[in-house]
Specification:
TIM Barrel, 46% helix, eight-stranded parallel beta sheet, globular, 300 residues, alpha/beta
Length: 300
């Protein structure tokens, strides 16, 4: 997997659970196949939306193995690499390569917000431990660690297997800053659902997407229209989609996106603690938005 492969719509997949909390491997495979049949270009497993922080190491490896049975010879499988310790992340990166993943999305450490010396050492340890193509993930909102364009450039200059960056600060100027500094060295991905058209307008290559888990055809079409310069059509679809895409940017984004999946018949609302199901009031408010949008669904 090279920079040329980092393009298009990459679902950050949810992890389906049985009522007892176990991973529903059968539905996981079915869901991934459905996303690929809708035209998605890659799959990112074990991310925040996949509740990776609640999965054991062995469960993470098993999720990758199940996904690999579906993605093989079709699209790249990308493993999100995150954990409390650098050693755990290095071990997971090595397991991802063994399973057959084509790429990694490398996160900063959970919980501990180090200075740049510590953060750079963590990223470098993971990047040095793998031959796989890697995406750096910048999400200061969720993780409290903010990678500047200059720091991204430093990591890219030291590690030739860094081929992409997922930008989730919510500031589209971060994408233009990386492009101005590094040119075409890295593929640029939007990491928040409600910034995708803006990101594509300034030259983003792709989207690590959330609502795609429930609405893949619309997600793929939105990117295709925007990339083709069919702006009026893209903006019409975007305007319809935005009330749902904004679910991706709030603390209970996992519960909300799984609720949309349940509403379209492709998933359940089950989450793992410490996440709890939505309250009656939260669920009713969300369903009002979801059902309103789905009732005048834009053809894709």
């Amino acid at each position: 997997m090279q920079k040329a492969d980092w393009t298009g719509v990459f679902p950050a997949i949810t992890t389906p659970f049985w009522p007892d909390g176990a991973v529903d491997e059968g539905f996981l495979a079915k869901h991934v196949a459905w996303l690929l049949d809708a035209g998605c270009d890659g799959v990112v497993a074990l991310g925040s939306l996949g509740e990776g922080a609640t999965l054991s190491f062995d469960e993470k490896v098993r999720v990758l193995e199940v996904c690999r049975t579906v993605t093989i010879d079709r699209v790249p499988l990308v493993a999100a690499i995150s954990g409390l310790s650098t050693a755990e992340c290095v071990a997971l990166a090595r397991e991802a390569a063994r399973v057959g993943c084509e790429g990694l999305m490398v996160l900063p450490p959970y919980v501990y917000r180090g200075d740049w010396r510590e953060t750079e050492t963590h990223f470098s340890s993971v990047l040095d431990a793998t031959p796989l193509s890697c995406m750096l993930y910048n999400n200061p909102i969720a993780y409290g660690t903010d990678l500047s364009a200059e720091q991204i450039g430093e990591l890219a200059s030291k590690h030739r297997n860094v081929h992409a960056v997922k930008e989730s600060s919510g500031d589209v100027r971060r994408l233009t800053a990386v492009r101005a500094l590094l040119g075409s060295r890295l593929a640029l991905f939007a990491g928040l659902d409600d910034m995708i058209v803006e990101a594509l307008a300034v030259g983003a290559d792709g989207w690590v997407a959330g609502l795609v888990n429930a609405l893949p055809a619309e997600s793929v079409q939105l990117v295709q229209l925007a990339k083709a310069g069919r702006i009026e059509e893209a903006l019409r679809l975007y305007a319809w989609f935005l009330p749902l895409l904004r679910f991706d940017t709030v603390p209970k984004f996992v519960q909300l996106i799984k609720l949309v999946q349940a509403e379209v018949g492709m998933g359940s609302e089950a989450v793992r603690a410490p996440r709890l199901p939505l309250t009656v009031e939260e669920r009713a408010a969300a369903l009002k938005i979801i059902r309103r949008q789905l009732s005048h669904r834009v053809d894709a």
